[in-house]
Amino acid sequence: MIDGSAAASVLSLEGKVAMVTGAASGIGRATAWRLAEAGAAVALLDIDEAGGRQAAREILDSGARARFFRCDVTSAEECRAATWAVKEAFGRIDILVNNAGVMRRKTVVELEEAEWDLVLAVNLKAVYLLSQQVIPIMASGGGGSIINIGSGWGLVGGPRAAAYCAAKGGVVNLTRAMAIDHGPQGIRVNCICPGDTDTPLLRDEARQLGVPEEDFLARAAARPLGRLGSTLDIANAVLYLASDLSAWVTGTAVVVDGGGLAGR
Known about the structure:
By secondary structure, the protein is α/β, with parallel strands linked by helices. It has helices at residues 4-11, 26-37, 49-61, 76-90, 113-140, 162-182, 200-209, 213-220, 231-242; strands at residues 17-21, 41-46, 66-70, 95-98, 144-149, 187-194, 253-256. It is 48% helix and 14% strand.
């Protein structure tokens, strides 16, 4: 007789503590919810205090454990302070989801230097800053799982997104390097590369490009599975990489894009 509880136990995050950046909205918010549903205590990090606190309250109201921590992920000092505040609040950190991101739809000719710096800082430097603080805590607890949110455009190029493509390409290869360095400490490091996912960030791209939102989203949905990704599609992939279902998976980039890159 098949025991379904065995599979469920491998997926469970009971007793684990997860940190999720960019958790006030979009993929980060859905991920915080999914990890909490799996049993993890969740620390939600964001600069959006109102959105982050609301997301944490909703998780708490569901009966799970959650707390909001304000953090500018481009600041080394704020990343250090937030990490140790999470450690003090929950006692450990087992899962880190580096999700915070920004997009500027411009070529290198169009980009202002400050825009380049912002996109690289939020999308790439923040992965380094948070991981630098969290890895020693994970290692002292016997290991953990780091999931970096990359992009399909970290694997192939895209139009008028030079800084974003550069940053997400860096995230993919940084993931590989971290997996090599920290595997001996029991820390797995993986990357998820989403395709176009229905988030405020995606809808803002239409505004930046001066394209009607409805037309932009319709074009973005033109892929083999015929739809945009949902935030839950990405959150489910995070749960897989956070859980023991992926116990022998590290250093990889998991494409979750409805087949968008299949013909590229």
